[in-house]
């Protein structure tokens, strides 16, 4: 058993992928995990497997989230729920912008605001934000709005450390690169095609890699705050430089 003071955790986007693995991993540490997502059937299966307490609520349901938080004493908040889209700012739709900002950024801000008050009162807590390398690097093919929302959560993670100065509340940002999850299948409409295009010829991260990263931060000694973890496949690098050639009519 751990000597950590944490007893409860709330994990969003918990019905599959990284979120479900985080639920499994924290449950292994003896933590009472509350799993939140829209897919009630998948949550029920996860509950049978792990014993987690399920809440079939969307992070976009502000009234539902507020009602839930009032009933819980949350020691660990894992902001994992997120969406993505194809395309960039030149061809995105107003609806896609609203959806990405709503789920990826607004919901994180609102839920963090609701939960952190109790953490301050108890002088105990840990906020874990799952972001993406898209929040730190620009690269061709990335969705501009997705990049912007993840950058916003990166900034939130840093500012929270200032807001919570003097309290025993830790903040961790875990920023994965390519990880084999269903999000790629949703982007192109076919998971089998996504596996062929993004995973079969690459040794990508797996959801349990991110769950283990979260567990490392959460289970570390209380004197230690793991502020930022950038987790990449060994064979993937970020960065690079693109330089377009002059056009024939350029001066």
UniProtKB/TrEMBL annotation:
Example of a GO MF term: oxidoreductase activity, acting on the CH-OH group of donors, NAD or NADP as acceptor
What the entry lists under Pfam families is as follows: adh_short
Which Gene3D superfamilies does the UniProt entry name for this protein? NAD(P)-binding Rossmann-like Domain (3.40.50.720)
Q: Which InterPro entries match?
A: NAD(P)-bd_dom_sf, SDR_fam
**Source superkingdom:** Bacteria
Annotated SUPFAM superfamilies: NAD(P)-binding Rossmann-fold domains
Cite the entry's keywords alphabetically. Answer: Oxidoreductase
Q: Give the family from UniProt.
A: Belongs to the short-chain dehydrogenases/reductases (SDR) family.
Tell me the protein's name: NAD(P)-dependent oxidoreductase
What is the originating organism of this protein? Komagataeibacter xylinus
């Amino acid at each position: 058993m751990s000597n950590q003071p944490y007893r409860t955790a709330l994990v969003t986007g918990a019905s599959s992928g990284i979120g479900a693995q985080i639920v499994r991993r924290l449950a292994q540490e003896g933590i009472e995990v509350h799993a939140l997502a829209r897919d009630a059937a998948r949550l029920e299966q996860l509950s049978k497997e792990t014993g987690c307490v399920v809440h079939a609520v969307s992070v976009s349901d502000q009234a539902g989230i507020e009602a839930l938080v009032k009933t819980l004493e949350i020691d660990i908040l894992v902001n994992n729920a997120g969406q993505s889209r194809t395309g960039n700012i030149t061809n995105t739709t107003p609806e896609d912008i609203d959806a990405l900002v709503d789920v990826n950024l607004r919901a994180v801000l609102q839920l963090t605001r609701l939960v952190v008050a109790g953490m301050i009162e108890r002088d105990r807590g840990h906020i874990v934000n799952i972001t993406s390398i898209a929040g730190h690097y620009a690269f061709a093919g990335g969705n501009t709005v997705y990049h912007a929302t993840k950058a916003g959560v990166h900034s939130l993670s840093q500012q929270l450390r200032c807001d919570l100065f003097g309290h025993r509340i830790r903040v961790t940002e875990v920023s994965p690169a390519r990880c084999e999850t269903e999000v790629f299948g949703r982007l192109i409409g076919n998971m089998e095609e996504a596996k062929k295009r993004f995973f079969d010829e690459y040794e990508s991260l797996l959801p349990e890699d991110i769950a283990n990263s979260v567990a490392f931060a959460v289970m570390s000694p209380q004197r230690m705050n793991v502020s930022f973890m950038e987790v990449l496949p060994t064979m993937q690098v970020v960065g690079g430089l693109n330089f377009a050639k002059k056009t024939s009519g350029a001066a």
